[in-house]
Amino acid sequence: MDTNTLTGLKSAFQVAPSDELAKVICFALIESGEESEIALYLQQAQKTLDESESLKLAEALYQAELHETARNVLSEELLSHKILVAKCLNESGEPEQARKLYCSAIEADSSLESHALNRTFNVEVKVAQINNDDKPKLKVVEKMDLASVTDMVRYRQDTSDFSDVVGLEHIKKQISKKIIMPFQRPSLFQKFKKKVGGGVILYGPPGCGKTLLARATAGECKASFFNIEISDVLDMYIGESEQKLHTIFEKARSSTPCVLFFDEIEALAGKREHSRNSSSANVVSQFLTELDGFSQNNEGVLVLASTNVPWAVDAAFLRPGRFDRMFFVPPPDKVARKAILEHHIKGRPAESNIDFSSIASKATGYSGADLYNLVEMAADEAIDESIEAGNEVVISNQHFKNAIKEARSTTTEWLTTARNYARYANEGGRYDEVLSFLKKHGK
Ligand SMILES: Nc1ncnc2c1ncn2[C@@H]1O[C@H](COP(=O)(O)OP(=O)(O)O)[C@@H](O)[C@H]1O
Ligand SMILES: [Mg+2]
Fold it and tell me: What CATH superfamily is the domain 153-328?
């Protein structure tokens, strides 16, 4: 269309403005590169534009850097318009909304994805794990940066300390020597050219104080302590868990000295041959890479982990430089059982002459958690009786006697399994501590 025709159209519009004419002028203005004038005709033209026409018009306006005008031509409800709306929003200073819109567009139609826009909005497109016959789902996630892991739980230094853990003196001493001291007297260790850091696994039957010990360690050492929830790391989206692990370790490396605590580590470090799918094997490999510190400097990062099933942990984790120390957290012996009972009765209304010694004798094989349970059951009995009697009945020996009939010990089964591993799969003396425990207790 030449200039004269365009001028003619404009004059015609002056005389008899019509929607159709406005539309013709708009496209003519694009052709002649006079996009800035489009705004004059837009309101009327818009009534006649269909989905693809308005997109075409908006694209021209966007190219001419008339972002807001372009935005007005578009409708974000239309899938075909979404990407361009997002670009316009981004240009007009609303990046957050823009990113959301872009994500919703490619979640609806993955072919709309573009690398350039992924970069612009700092997002990554992941393929969700494929469940049986489900089609893989796409998920768009914001790229993780260090700042977004600030929600890693950081224990305050006064949460608990070793006084909350009854007994286990031997292992407390080991922890002091190998974990707490290096953090408190780094210069001493430097002098002897000992590196501070590495990995320690606490293992033993459930309910015997592994988690308790780890938390108390946090209170004892004056280092930052991050409690990593395995469920926070594992993600149904392929590749995401590895990235999260990496981010967590990066965070740790930037806040030394610190302790990273992975409770029930077998969920993350399970034997690769047992894993159902390749993605959990990838998590294991990533974990190993992070531990190794070939490319990273792990100095000052101590990785503390706990597990009830050490034999399910991939042997690769136990090599030197990784989790090279394993501490056995045994079930409490009689003295410890008595002390644990006394610890948990504190602050509850109870008779002063309860024979904890004889209760502890009867409670062979009880874990700390079983003993805590026993105290709870005795307390329940006392409450029931109080309600029936109509006045307060304190916890007595009889309540414990009744309770112990119903309670049960949970460590025996674990010890039976452990004995088999200790006898037949004791590579590198890994379970020596279990063996000497069993020997000492005549099992
Ligand atoms: N040595 C202990 N001293 C005091 N309480 C204990 C001890 N061991 C276990 N308990 C009790 O049992 C509960 C469970 O212990 P936990 O540390 O979670 O066991 P796990 O070894 O399975 O991690 C604790 O919260 C605590 O009430
Ligand atoms: Mg635990």
Answer: P-loop containing nucleotide triphosphate hydrolases (3.40.50.300)
